[in-house]
């Protein structure tokens, strides 16, 4: 499972270099990757509990995305990254914020319409 996490992290890094922000935001895809990288193993498995460092990253991401522009940028980065990964457990990804006690205004899914994020 570790090699999957490493490959996924590399995929995230490549995707982040290609993603142009859709709005003026302070949060970047690289920042987002730093926050969610502890979640990768969890998101590619079907069992186990959310690692504490993962929840810490999800909370940090939520705290960093204070403006609508930041939330839209984070949504777009997550959406593009999720769409570019094979084998992600989407039900787990969608539950991740609530499993960590965080409420975000969008689903972590490649089908999310980030333009509607407030």
List keywords for this structure.
single chain; 58% helix; mainly alpha; globular; 6 helices; 118 residues
Structure description:
This protein is mostly helical. Residues 10-23 have low confidence and may be disordered. The protein has helices at residues 2-18, 29-36, 40-43, 52-64, 68-83, 90-99. Helix content is 58%, strand content 0%. It starts with a helix and ends in a 19-residue tail after the last helix.
Count up the helices: 6
Structural class: mainly alpha
Strand content range: under 5%
Task: Tell me, rounded to a whole number, the average pLDDT.
Answer: 81
The termini sit apart by 36 Å
Based on DSSP secondary structure assignment, what is the total number of beta strands?
Answer: 0
Alpha carbon gyration radius? 13 Å
Shape: globular
Order of helices and strands: HHHHHH
The portion of residues assigned to helices is: 55-70%
Largest sheet, strands/sense/barrel:
none
Q: Which stretches are poorly predicted, pLDDT < 50 over at least 5 residues?
A: 10-23
């Amino acid at each position: 499972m570790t090699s999957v996490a490493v490959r996924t992290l590399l995929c995230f890094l490549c995707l982040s270099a290609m993603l142009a922000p859709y709005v003026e935001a302070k949060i970047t895809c690289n920042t987002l990757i730093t926050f969610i990288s502890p979640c990768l193993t969890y998101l590619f498995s079907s069992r186990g509990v959310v690692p504490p460092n993962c929840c810490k990253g999800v909370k940090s991401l939520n705290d960093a995305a204070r403006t609508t522009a930041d939330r839209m940028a984070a949504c777009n980065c997550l959406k593009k990254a999720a769409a570019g990964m094979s084998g992600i457990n989407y039900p787990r990804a969608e539950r991740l914020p609530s499993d960590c006690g965080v409420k975000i205004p969008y689903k972590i899914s490649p089908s999310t319409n980030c333009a509607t994020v407030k």
